[in-house]
Amino acid sequence: MFFVILTYFLIPAYYNKNEVKILLQNQIFDEYDIKVKFAGEIKYSLFPKPHFSTKNLLITHNEDDIVKSNHTKIYVSAKKFFSLKKLKIKDLVLKKAEFSTNSSNINFFINVLNSKKNQNKVIIKKSNLFYKDKNKDVIFLLKIKKLYFLYDKKNLEHKMFLNSEIFNIPIKLKIGCLLTAWIKDWLHESHMGFPVISLAFCSVTL
C-alpha cells in the first residue's frame, strides 16, 4: 500500500515539463492576475508538500520584466494527479525576489493585492523592492523579510501581513480590508513620484 501511495504522489514528476509550464502560467494568471515566464527549468518535489519549483521566474507587466524571483515554489493540490489537465495550483511562494517598481507600474502590484479571485496565499520571503523615479534612480529600498496576502472569501476581506525594513527602520503591518474598500482611490502622485493611496476603510495594525 505504501508503494502504491508513493507512486501516486510521484506521478507529476513524469509530466511533460513544457506542458507543465504552460499549465502553471495559465493558472497563475487566472488565479492571481499575474503573468509569469519560466526562464529556467522546473522541478517537482514531494516534500514538504507537492510542489513545482524553479530558480528563475519572471513576472511581466506591459511587456516589461518587473519581478525576478530566484527561488519560486508553486504548491499544487494532491488531488487528481492522474491527469495533468486536472492539476490545480495552490499557494505561490517567491523567495529572494527583486521587485522593480515605479509610478507607471505600481498599480499592477495594487491590483494583484486587491484581487478577489483566489483564497490561496501569495508569499514573498527575503526579497527586495526597489522604487525608482522616471530616470530609473532608486528612491527607496524596501527589504521584505516576509509578506503574504490572500482574499478571505468567507469574510469578504483582503488580508495582508508585512514584515519588512525601510531606511533601516523595521516595519510590521497587518492589514484587513473590506471587499469594496481595500483601496478606496488612486488619488495622485507627489513630486517625488510616490503614489498616494487611501486606506481609510482598512484596519491596520502596526
How does this structure look, described?
The chain is an alpha+beta fold and 206 residues long. The chain contains three helices and 13 strands; from the N terminus they run ααββββββαβββββββ. The chain has helices at residues 2-9, 17-32, 106-113, and strands at residues 35-38, 42-45, 51-54, 57-61, 64-76, 89-101, 122-132, 138-152, 157-166, 169-178, 186-189, 195-197, 202-205. The strands form two sheets. Strands 1, 2, 3, 4, 5, 6, 7, 8, 9, 10 and 13 form an eleven-stranded mixed sheet that branches. A two-stranded antiparallel ribbon has the order 11-12. A hairpin with a 5-residue loop joins β2 (42-45) and β3 (51-54). It is globular and about 55 Å long. Mean pLDDT is 82; it is low at 179-201.
Which SSEs are present, and which pair or pack?
Layout: H1 2-9, H2 17-32, E1 35-38, E2 42-45, E3 51-54, E4 57-61, E5 64-76, E6 89-101, H3 106-113, E7 122-132, E8 138-152, E9 157-166, E10 169-178, E11 186-189, E12 195-197, E13 202-205
Parallel strand pairs: 6-7
Antiparallel strand pairs: 1-4, 2-3, 3-5, 4-5, 5-6, 7-8, 8-9, 9-10, 10-13, 11-12
Feature tags:
206 residues, alpha+beta, eleven-stranded mixed beta sheet, two-stranded antiparallel sheet, 3 helices, 16% helix
